[in-house]
Amino acid sequence: MTAIHQHRYVAVGNEPFLTSYSGQYQSYVVPAMTNLLQSLAKANLARNVKLVVPCNADAYESSLPSQGTFRPELTPIITQMVSLLNSNGSPFVVNIYPFLSLYGNSDFPQDYAFFEGTTHAVTDGPNVYYNAFDGNLDTLIAALAKIGYGQMPIVIGEVGWPTDGALGANLTAARVFNQGLVNHVLSNKGTPLRPQVPPMDVYLFSLLDEGAKSVLPGNFERHWGIFSFDGQSKYPLNLRNGLLKNAKDVEYLPYRWCIANPLKDLAEVTNHVRLACSYADCTTLNYGGSCNEIGAKGNISYAFNSYYQLQKQNPRSCDFDGLGMVTFLNPSIGKCRFLVGVSDYASSSGFRLQNSWISVLLILLWDAWLFLM
After folding, report:
1. Residue-wise DSSP of 191-233
2. Which of 158, 221, 268, 293 does the annotation list as catalytic?
3. Which strand (E) or helix (H) includes residue 202?
4. Which residue is catalytic, options 15, 73, 116, 293?
5. Which tens digit of pLDDT belongs to each residue from 196-206?
6. Model pTM?
7. Mean pLDDT within 76-95
8. Which residues form the X8 domain (predicted)?
9. Which SS3 state, helix, strand or coil, does residue 27 take?
10. 35-63 residue pLDDT tens
């Protein structure tokens, strides 16, 4: 079985300067960096494995890219951090999410979030910005220049588009954004402040959905995956040498679903739905989700089935005090898919799936996440 052993970066936390953290992690960043740098040196790894501090785009600010600066309270510590990174040949890692700009601001021009052209271009002196990604990246470049590191290499640690859980989060938008991003970066156009110099690495976020992730920022947080839970690509995406490859030989549970029993009074179903959704992911039922308009009984059935599949179709998991029943007719409605789970594997079939996933991972690592190597 093939294995991947190469590591490029060691991250000190993740987005430690988020405004929502109210500064509680700032004082730990540089001491942690110093300790880890010493550890990498002792292990003779400092040359090949670089220390990084992934930052969120709210660490810097401006009305125009050329005026970019780090937040005043962060400037001293980020200057110290960048000095350490630079002395060890490490890049500045930033996470850029145009989707979040669109999600958080009703006045944000939708076409500016993508790479297909915009009627809301931003003019900044001699430079014109046609997409939020370039504008955000040049804001960071300007901020780095103001603290003396204008030529520092930059890695995009996370960038992507969710496929569900909010208005604007859907398969079409995700495909258009990610394909536009790939094409844009591989064109080597760079940005107005760094023409012909794209980021040294770009990591698409993410491989799979995360059904138990916190939804405090929004229900879309569980739906960033390029692949579904079963290793099937959600949409066509050409990375460099062809489209994404699906996992092969996936063995599903039997094609049956758990739904609300149409012959039962569902007046007392609320606690059962709440219990099911406390274990399974029901975020697609909320406003903006792909299953938001399937009606009250549809919502109950979706919650029941999500729990039922999570429990590997254990017959007792579809009881719900007699309010659930198993059906062999697919209850999916339009874009709302009622899923069937993946089975537990015998050793032979499990080995086939693992090999398939290794192929997928290799493709993503070398053709998608690191498509700028």
Report:
1. ETTEET---SEEEES-SB--TTS--SS-GGGG---SB-TTS-B
2. 158
3. strand 201-204
4. 15
5. 999 999 999 99
6. 0.90
7. 97
8. 256-338
9. helix
10. 999 999 999 999 999 999 999 999 999 99
